[in-house]
Design brief:
Largest sheet: none
Number of domains: 2
Number of strands: 0
Helix content: over 70%
CATH class of the largest domain: Mainly Alpha
CATH architecture of the largest domain: Orthogonal Bundle
Structural class: mainly alpha
Strand content: under 5%
Number of helices: 14
Length: 342
Amino acid sequence: MVSRAGSLPRYMLQRLLLVIPMLFILLTLVFLIMRVAPGDPVSATVGGQLREEELERRRAALGFDRPLIVQYLDYLGDVARLDFGTTITDDQPIMNIVKENGGATLTLTVAAFAVALFLGVVFGLIAGRFRDSAGDVVIRLLGIATYAAPVFYTGILVKMLFAGNLGWLPPNRATSGFTESDVDEHTHILLVDALWQGETEAVVDILEHLVLPAATLGIFICGIFVRLIRVNVLQTLQADYVEAARARGVRESKVMRSHAFRNALVPVVTIIGLQVALLLSGAVLTERTFEWPGIGSELVRYITLRDYTAVQGIITMFAVVVVVISILVDIVIAIIDPRVRY
């Protein structure tokens, strides 16, 4: 029998070993999908703009004149070194794009996740507490509607209402990055830099531009948390220890706070890894809708330019991030809930 002390390291090792085939499959799919189109990425991107000699030079420089299996092995080797390639249109390393625009995407996804979690917890608890009431039905319908509606369509409606008709918030980012205030970028997370430097005007400006895209993306995924928390609240309220607490005269508010709320949050941790992928995919469309200067906006721009190398590099980076976060979430769950280790 394996001791309890040794079970967590063993579980962590198993999860880490699973990263290898998972990443291998993801990277292979990305590589093959980007090679489905006829021709090569250089011709597809700038084929009508350069002479054939220059096209051949660029193909050779980027390795597209080599056999496909050699390109594939080079691609895997580059990813292992965290080298996601160089764009064809502007000859920019993908890691520079991640460095310059990653902070904006991180800011948006964290803010959107906070919105989704807050709305999911509040409405999930209400729906679970007042099961089959009118409020419960309305909350469930809204959860389904927000998840089913395309995030870019919701973003357009939100921008038209709150920025266009009501004029409460700015529709797009400021013309100079996020803000017109001078903020020295050290972390490339402008909100953090502005807070660190005490630039109050810049902080307010950034938050004003963040509200609409974060709310749009957060509402998009909050329905998942609403349903999950509602189900777990219902299960908890039917448990024997909850009935015993009620029999002892414990107030319903304390039952909800001490038992239902805590137990409902445990499964939320288990799906955080899945929501990261959904947040990143939604962030691409949300950033484009609100002109948010993140990696998603850059991805759409390079898709428009048909820069397949840039698209491949950014998608590969997204895939690596999702896998790493999923593994970290699995390890956190194993620490919180020892049952998953066996």
